[in-house]
Write a structure and sequence with these properties.
By secondary structure, the chain is an alpha/beta fold. It has 2 domains: 10-163 and 315-387, 3-Layer(bba) Sandwich (FAD/NAD(P)-binding domain), CATH 3.50.50; 167-311, Rossmann fold (3-Layer(aba) Sandwich). The chain has helices at residues 19-30, 46-51, 61-68, 72-80, 86-92, 101-114, 181-184, 187-193, 209-222, 258-267, 292-299, 373-387, and strands at residues 8-15, 36-40, 56-60, 98-100, 121-125, 127-133, 139-144, 151-160, 164-166, 177-178, 200-205, 229-235, 243-245, 248-250, 282-286, 305-308, 312-314, 319-322, 325-326, 330-331, 337-339, 345-351, 358-361, 367-370. The strands form 6 sheets. Strands 1, 2, 5, 6, 7, 8, 18, 19, 20, 21 and 22 form an 11-stranded mixed beta sheet that branches. Strands 10-16-11-12-15 form a 5-stranded parallel beta sheet, covered by helices on one side. Strand 20 (330-331) and strand 21 form a beta hairpin. It is globular. It comes from Phialocephala subalpina.
Length: 390
């Protein structure tokens, strides 16, 4: 794997070991692109496993199975891993039901462990800090590792699966304690963060799946162990639900699903909230983009804490350049590739995952961006063969 200059060379470098990174490795192996260098700082299922194990999934179990069986390398890992294992556990569940994110995270960890050097995958704990495209048709990639000097390797392909983190925005009221979305989605941690013996009012901003989960978590605390807890919910629009429409799902990527959707319908809709037990603890503030700053000034002044569930932003990616000039680039959500400022494809650079999702159009012409394990698999099975032609 070393070239004439002594630099280690790979067919592909995959950055990130969350569900999309795992899927990218599997699909590269499907195209016989190895050796692969796989770089991540912990190599343990990404943010899915680190932060969201306590979150109920809005995905049917059979969709996780389709991810687990999507490529030969994954199927081999499932066969080789001693039982009981995470894949077998999912197989034993009701395939039409949902499960907890922890069960999908355990699958990701199992696959990560099984994708090893025997399959042409070399794992490196560290962070890719920069990469330069050379006229020789390779990326020169610098990797920083804890307790080691930086190393440089070359690769034909650089695949970014670097993930996203919750977004927050400025608010016109000071002295609010911010509760991060990651923490608010973890009921045991959230319970410890909120004092039980003080009057606490927590504002929740947003109406996404995550926002409704946070509202439910807070309601459960307020109605049990934290009786002095009150909730103010700020939302710009009515609740939106995913809808089964034959062989496709309307609002598949943006609508409420599963148990969370049922809870929202029973407790948060305009005709249900006044008579719901939730109304004892929750005040709904309907706002708009034009009026929300004014509404925040009026209603946040009585709050002690805030949770912003308003979306995610892409995590930092390596510094990328060609001939010493930093790339100005645009992601193509249909091919998984990038274009430079002149509209030309950047060779050997691709991405996938929550920060780089596939653009999809439903039968009614609505545009969404596909996020989820099975959706990553479907996307990468389609595009990786074209990535590996060069």
């Amino acid at each position: 794997m070393a070239n004439s200059e002594g630099t280690t060379k790979y067919e592909a470098v995959v950055v990130g070991a969350g569900p999309a990174g795992i899927c990218a490795v599997g699909n590269l192996l499907e195209q016989n692109k190895e050796p692969i260098l796989w770089v991540d700082d912990v190599m343990s299922g990404g943010r899915l496993n680190k932060y969201y194990r306590e979150v109920p999934s809005n995905t049917r179990v059979k969709r996780f199975i389709s991810y687990a069986e999507g490529v030969k390398a994954f199927r081999d890992v499932a066969k080789e891993t001693p039982k009981p294992n995470a894949y077998q556990h999912l197989k034993d569940l009701d395939q039409e039901a949902t499960c907890h994110i922890a069960e999908a995270a355990d699958l990701c960890i199992m696959l990560t462990k099984g994708l090893d050097e025997s399959k042409g995958v070399h794992k490196h704990l560290g962070k890719v800090s920069e990469a330069s495209w050379s006229d020789s048709g390779n990326w020169s990639i610098k990797i920083n590792s804890p307790g080691q000097d930086p190393s440089t390797i070359t690769s034909k392909l650089l695949i970014l699966c670097t993930g996203s983190s919750p977004t927050t925005g400025p608010l016109p009221v000071s002295r609010l304690q911010e509760i991060g979305l990651d923490s608010a989605l973890n009921p045991p941690l959230l319970s410890k963060m909120i004092p039980k013996d003080q009057s606490i009012t927590i504002a929740v901003i947003g109406a996404s799946h995550s926002a409704i989960l946070v509202l439910r978590n807070l309601y459960y605390l307020a109605s049990s162990t934290h009786p002095s807890l009150a909730i103010k919910w700020f939302t710009r629009h009515p609740l939106r639900y995913a809808e089964e429409r034959g062989d496709w799902i309307y609002r598949d990527n943006t609508g409420l699903k599963g148990d969370v959707a049922v809870w929202a319908q029973e407790n948060l809709e305009e005709d249900r909230l006044p008579s719901s037990d939730v109304s004892k603890y929750l005040q709904k503030i309907s706002t708009t983009k034009a009026t929300e700053q004014e509404d925040y000034r009026e209603y946040l002044k009585d709050c002690t804490h805030v949770v912003q569930a308003i979306g995610f932003h892409a995590n930092e990616i390596p510094v990328l350049d060609r001939g010493g000039k930093k790339f100005e680039m645009k992601y193509n959500n249909e091919t998984g590739g990038f274009e430079d400022s002149d509209g030309k494809d950047i060779k050997g650079l691709y991405a996938a995952g929550i920060a780089f999702p596939e653009r999809v159009v439903d039968p009614e012409g609505n545009v969404e961006y596909a996020v989820g394990l099975a959706k990553f698999m479907k996307f990468l099975k389609r595009v990786v063969p074209s990535w590996t032609l060069t």
